[in-house]
Known about the structure:
Elements: H1 3-31, E1 34-37, E2 40-43, E3 46-51, E4 56-59, E5 68-71, E6 75-78, E7 81-88, E8 99-103, E9 110-111, E10 124-126, E11 133-134, E12 147-149, E13 156-157, E14 170-172, E15 179-180, E16 193-195, E17 202-203, E18 225-226, E19 239-241, E20 248-249, E21 262-264, E22 271-272, E23 285-287, E24 294-295, E25 308-310, E26 317-318, E27 331-333, E28 340-341, E29 354-357, E30 363-364, E31 377-380, H2 395-400, E32 402-405, H3 410-414, E33 425-427
Parallel strand pairs: 4-7, 5-8, 7-9, 10-12, 11-13, 14-16, 15-17, 17-18, 19-21, 20-22, 22-24, 23-25, 25-27, 26-28, 28-30, 29-31, 31-32, 32-33
Antiparallel strand pairs: 1-2, 2-3, 3-4, 6-7
Amino acid sequence: MNLYQNNSNMKALRKALLSLFVLSLCTTAGAIDIKLKKDKATVDGITYAINAKKQTAQVVKGQEPYVGDIVIPEKVVVDSVTLYVEEIASGAFKACPGLTSVTIPDCIIKIGSSAFEGCSSLTEVTIPERIKELPNDLFKSCASLTRVNMSDAVSKMGSDIFQDCKSLADFEIPSAMTEIPTSMFEGCSELRHVTIPTGIKKIGSSAFENCASLEYIDIPTGVSSFGSSAFKGCGHLTEFHFPAGVSTVEDNMFRGCVGLKTVEMSNAISKIEHDAFNGCTSLENIELSNSISSLGSSAFEGCAGLMSVKFPNSIKEIPSSAFKNCSSLKDLELPTALQKIGSSAFEGCASITSLTLPLALKEIGGNAFDKCNSLMDIYCNSAVPVKISGSSFGKTTMKEGIVHVKKGYATNYNLHKDWKKFLNIINQE
Length: 429
């Protein structure tokens, strides 16, 4: 063998050894299932954002949705570097309908918003004890979720956290919390029982909206405010008792609560906002406390079962559509300080038979008593006719009803451009 042949053989040997070395590296990487891409790595089917300098890893969304049972490890090894898993990123498991369970290790210190949103097959999750705050939308639309285990030390939850979790039937709010956030249980149609701790001070907007199976809820005495639509659409809710510190019934608070029969208001309530009890068709009687000075429009609209209302003298205005279509309302005694009745305020109250207008009343809006076809007697005590429009009362009342005025005042009403349209105006004896 000459020198040239010897050199050629050595080169071929070195090339073969190099190929074997590269093949060995590839085979080793495949054995532990590591795929590297810039600052991310996928290890055993879970994708991580890695920080080699800090030796930390964050579970992030993978290229394909996660499926089956996922067990998050406490640490992973990438490029011979041990990385400690500390966080689950926002949206990490979002929209993974095939994810059936996830095991979260105690080393996790933070979970991002919407981390499990839309995981429709997820049934139960245990939150590590180190986590004290949970973010927005965390379990939103997890339609099969029935149980979430967490520490009583959790002090804050984000809005919409359990929205549309349609299988969630029972929940105990951690004792460290002071506020139920916006839309916390909105759309939880199977929710039947919620334990609210004594430390809760505020219940946010739409917190229990459309919780159709909720029949009763015990509100702690320390609650001082509710957000709008807090119990809207809770069709099986039958009774509600306001704590003494609440001053306002917020807008749409009980709208569409068709099963609500009893409402106990505290003397601290001074304001009922618009549509607060709109569509509460089972509500039969309502007694407004003496401290109430303001009613919102459509506050009791569509309360078809409402038979009587007791007004305090502090009410100076009954706004538009406040009692519209309260078809069973019969006993109507207006407050003495009342100055204005808004448009359509009592429209469609077909059971009202008589009406006495207070001396302080100055104006009755359009359609205020339209379609009140049983209203046949109107008693007016003022010498000066109350301002009305041609549509304030229905045609049946104007054609067949009687306007009773104090002796000597009938002429004033017969000369009024709108009151004179009543066919029967008589002096009281």
